[in-house]
Design the sequence.
């Protein structure tokens, strides 16, 4: 039986937010836990329920939670670079580029890594 060698995803991904480009490495265990904890805290535990809504505003809120919690942990200088106290202070229009980078670059790259990390999990 032949074993096909798996191609590993890139070690990092470049994310452009505003005028800056950030190189993100795969999160550490602590960062992964912190991201998930922030999602739960930010939404009072309703984050997963947002997925089942048909309202565009709820779906947008879900994506904002994903992008904001992820990038606030993985790019600690982001608020300083955007000159805001919190990523929650910007409007959905201002955060459009951040959400797009999350959907098109970060999320697919992250999922490639998760598939490899969890390939032996039944």
Sequence:
């Amino acid at each position: 039986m032949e074993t096909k060698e798996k191609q590993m995803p890139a070690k990092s991904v470049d994310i452009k937010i505003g005028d800056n480009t950030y190189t993100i490495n795969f999160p550490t265990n602590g960062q992964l836990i912190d991201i998930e904890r922030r999602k739960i805290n930010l939404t009072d535990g309703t984050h997963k329920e947002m997925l089942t809504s048909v309202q565009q505003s709820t779906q947008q809120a879900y994506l904002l939670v994903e992008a904001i919690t992820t990038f606030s942990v993985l790019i600690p200088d982001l608020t300083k670079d955007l000159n805001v106290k919190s990523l929650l202070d910007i409007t959905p229009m201002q955060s459009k580029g951040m959400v797009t980078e999350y959907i098109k670059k970060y999320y697919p790259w992250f999922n490639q890594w998760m598939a490899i990390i969890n390939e032996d999990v039944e």
